[in-house]
Structure formats: structure tokens, C-alpha cells
Amino acid sequence: MKRTLYLFALAFMVTNCQKYQNEASQIPYSVQKGQLFSEGTKTDMVHASSVLQLPNGKLMSVWYGGSKEGDADTRIWYSFYEYEDWGIPMQLVTTDETAHWNPVLQDFGSFARVYFKVGIDTKNWVTKYCDYDYQSETWSEAKELVEGDTSGGRGPVKNKCLITTENLIIAGASTEQSQWKAFFDLSSDGNTWEKTDYIVAKDNNGNDVEMIQPTLWQDLSGGIHAMFRTKSKFVFRSDSNDGGRSWCEAYSTGLPNNNSGIDCVTTANGWLWLAYNPIADGRRNRLVVSLSKDDGAHWEDVVTLEESSNPFAEFSYPAIIADGNDIIVTYTYKRKVIKYAFLHIEEDNE
To answer: Model confidence over 271-296: pLDDT tens digits?
Structure first.
């Protein structure tokens, strides 16, 4: 592991972790879970977290919180993890007086950028961003990502960008104006963006499939791929053969999707991990992390992060990043807190 700050692979395995071996996957692992803050801290409702590991080893997480989703008092909040604990949540300073949504963190070497949406509803989203300077530990003023955009939002809509081996920044984007449509925003410098065509998707009957919130990965041979949240009850997938500039018609992965957010990441060994609700209907009462060792052709559940017999319980909107062969996840817990999980895969499986 790269960081010494999070010694859950050693200390927590002995103290407040259990060891598991999923019967389906036979992948032994240890996990540490907890909350970023107590229920009711700062806001009544929280949702849609993102997480990033900083160069100094700290973690940063962001989310939106307020009275309830869409209320004018919802703002972007953030916290840092160091010395085995999360700090007091702090509010990102912005001048917009309408609802804030879906923050997404991205590392750019000397600073972290948080993208977020602003608008009275999803149809009227405008994408803005602020930068966190690692050296001065200060935030820049909020700026509009694509000035004058009225398309319903540009840049990342829920999940982190992919920076390819060719140093192309690919943002998984989508709009919800009249119909859900997914696309990708491309940038070579993080400042100017080029929008791809909308991704075509059809079900087995030839009907259009509405998709949003792409999550991206690059395989070990350089191929670029994405999976999508859909209204079709399945996670869909599309692939690019030209570095992310054009994409094939999206197709079903066979993985169930309850019309809720997903996120994926590849670890250093090339394994692909997916955090999602493995449910076909609208419930969000089970959240798992699954593994594919063949770039998404086959999947096996490794860990169930949350599960409840209450169909109205909500565990959703995971964000997942890799630290070597280990996994860090943050996610919404009952719209009341953001929870985290540190997942360590045993050495003999790395």
C-alpha cells in the first residue's frame, strides 16, 4: 500500500476489522467501515459523495447537503481524513443561492478540482468548479466550466474523470432535459472541453434506453470503456476503440440496475471493481462491491457493504477509488450520513 496513514491492512485487521471470504468469489479480504460524521451534523440531508486521495496521503471527500434534495439551501460540503479520523465537515463557499448537486473530485497534480452542479432541478443544471491548492490549502472562487452552457450540464455528472495513458481527460457526462442522454466531455488541459455525440443505446426490442452518469476505466491494453446507470433495469456498457473520442452502441451487461448511481475503478493488478446496488427494481436497500478479472465479462460479489430487509432503506451513490490493489469507497447512508469503507485484499490474491 502506498500510504502509511491508513494502516487498516495491518492494525485494523487485528482490532476493529473482520476477515471475510465470500463463498462465491473466494477472495479473502479485510474491511474497515465507518461514518464521516454523525447524523444531523451541519445538515439534515446528505447525498452523492466523491472521494480522492491527496499526494500527502490524506483523503478528501465531498458531498451535497441541506434540508432536502433540491432545496435552495443545499450546498457542497467537504472533509479530510487523517490520523485515523475524519475532520469536521466544512462548507464550500459559493455565491449561488440555488440548489447545489453532485460534487466530483479530480486530482490535477498540484491541486484538486471539485466539479458540481447548480440549478433549481436537474434539467437546469449548470456545471461549476473550484480548485483546492495543495500547498496553500485554500480554495479558488467558483467558475463556470463551459461558459453560457444551457444543455443541462457539462463535465463529470457523478463519477471521477478518467485520465488516459495519452493524457486525455474524459468526463462521464449526461443531461436530463426531456430524455436522459449520456455523452463524454474531452479535454487535454482541463479548461477547454469538447463534447462527444450522445451514446446510442437500445434494448432487446430495439427501444431506446435512457442512460446517465457514466463511470469509466482503461484496461491494461489501453482500451477505454464505460458503464451507465439506466432506466432499463440493467447496467449498460459502451467501448471506445479510438481513445475515448467515439463510442459503440451501448449494450446490456446483464448486471441489475435499480436506476441508481454506480462507480467503478481498476486496481494496480488490472482487476475491475464495481460498487452498485445489485437490484433490478427501484429499491436501494443493498449495496455491494463486485469484482471482474476479465474487464467486465464476468462478475463476482466480494463484499456486501450494506443490506436491509426494509425495502425503503437507502444505501446508494457509491464513489470508489483504488490505492494500489486496495479499495476506498464512500456512499450515501439513508440520506442522513456519508459512510466509508476501506477494503484490503489479502496478499496471496494480489
So the answer is: 999 999 999 999 999 999 999 999 99
